[in-house]
Amino acid sequence: MKILISADMEGIAGIVAEDQVDSRSGKDYNWARKIMTEEVNYAIEGAFAGGAKKVVVNDSHGGMRNIVPDLLHPDATLITGSLKELSMVQGLSNDVDGVFLVGYHGRRGTRASIMDHSYSGRVLRRLKINGVELGETGVNALVAGEFDAPVLLVTGDDSVCREAEDLFEKVYTVEVKKGLSRYSAECIHPKKAGEMIKKEAEKAVKDISTFKPFRLESPYRLELELISSSMADGAQLVPEVSRLGPTTLAYTHQDLITVFKVFRAMLTLGGSSA
Ligand SMILES: [Zn+2]
């Protein structure tokens, strides 16, 4: 059995601020990447305890080089760096049986969610597929669904746990902190949070046969609201994308991975036209 762990940073226990998650200017960044790596290790231990034979960790935050390779559990492999075709869920393939989303946060527009955003905080205000508002949790679960892999476990702040429970028929969640505002939270001690994650990860893997991959119906209509009209001007350069309004765009295709790639191309072009 093979488990893919997508590891983000904003939802790690103890982390609440930009200067902890920004590799360029963050004075607490080196501390934060260490506790991120340690938290991921608990998830890896849980996966193996539950019966996984192979665990792949995909670093999913920012430049995607946050996890400290020599501090990571030696029996897992690490996908590090960017650009990656499947971004936050690189490593998905037909032999992946289940996915963990560790260190996640609420989608953009969620109140008291630690550094809430969806893929690009600078560019994206709102994202819908087939009318369903999604954040990173939902989009990444849809991509995993294309590989028949259900999301088994979501860890992060309370907002992302509720978001996952609302979207998925069944999912294990571990709330490592309660958001008080965008940049403050009451946090469980990283060691305690890790133990909880290990326990739930083990249970989720043992229970894997009862999960269903997350899917919406094809064709997929993607609707994006970007922050500014100049960003939308850039995103509109992607062929077949239609402009709905000054900052809103839409794209429809029957293949979900194509929609995902177009989505990311729109964010890239939008970001470069800011
Ligand atoms: Zn994120």
Structure in a nutshell:
With 274 residues, this protein is of the alpha/beta class. The chain is 32% helix and 24% strand.
Task: Give an overview of the whole structure.
- The chain has 274 residues and is an alpha/beta fold.
- It has two domains: 2-210, Dipeptide transport protein (Rossmann fold, 3-Layer(aba) Sandwich), CATH 3.40.50.10780; 220-272, Gyrase A, domain 2.
- 32% of the residues lie in helices and 24% in strands.
- It is built from seven helices and twelve strands.
- The protein has a seven-stranded mixed β-sheet, with helices on both faces. The chain has a five-stranded antiparallel β-sheet with strand order 6-5-10-12-11.
- The N and C termini lie far apart (44 Å).
- The mean pLDDT is 98.
- The chain binds zinc ion.
- Residues 8, 10, 105, 136 line the site of zinc ion.
